[in-house]
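Why run this: before we spend reagent on co-expression, it is cheaper to look at a predicted model of the complex and decide which construct boundaries make sense. The entries below are exactly what would go into the expression plan.
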Amino acid sequence: MACLKVHGSVFSTAVLRVITCLNEKDLEFELVPINMAAKEHKKEPFISLNPFGQVPAFEDGDLKLFESRAITKYIAYEYKEKVTQLISMDSKKMAILAQWLEVEAHQYDPAASKLTFELVIKPLMLGLTSDGAVVEEYEGKLAKVLDVYEARLAESKYLAGDCFSLADLHHLPSINYLMGTQAKKLFESRPHVSAWCTDILARPAWTKTLAMQKKP
Ligand SMILES: N[C@@H](CCC(=O)N[C@@H](CS)C(=O)NCC(=O)O)C(=O)O
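The model came back. Tokens follow.
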């Protein structure tokens, strides 16, 4: 039995972020499924792992964590020697990487998550209708963020520099969902953003993560 455990649903963007990081590191882990429709994430035993009642929760032996970005940072440092290097040991390079981690969390994700909810979760998972006004508002917000990304990616292959890093990885779940919606135009109309999306979505670790959604 693997000592690394991820508790959550493979349809959650935050859970997919953690699983992709584990796959980049080629680490074995156990997925402990949480039935969100049955509100298992709001009850014991899950609530003892994350008192905020949100997936994912993570265990590495005695260490118990929640918040997907904290979990991926832990994995990237703890298993830094394994396979893909997702962080930098150089303080200046790490500062740039950390800057783009913050951009993803505080500039990109609020717009991308709202659009994922309106365009994917509401119509496909909850059987609800998307709110057109909200979609228009958040497409505008995401477009502004992606204008900054387009300029950055014109000078640098990946967000933090020449190599794929945690800063790129954190975007994968929402980009993947949004590419199946009308919001894909925001990514595809910006050539450098489009090339970056194609590149990171083709990573074997991401393919392996997506395959977990197809398992019965
Ligand atoms: N900042 C948290 C967000 C986690 C989060 O929003 N999880 C969602 C699924 S993607 C969830 O559990 N939603 C159910 C709820 O909030 O009740 C993280 O990155 O782990």
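The CA atoms of residues 66 and 182 lie 32 Å apart. The pocket of glutathione is lined by residues 12-14, 41, 53-56, 67-69 (CB under 6 Å). Bring this page to Monday's planning discussion.
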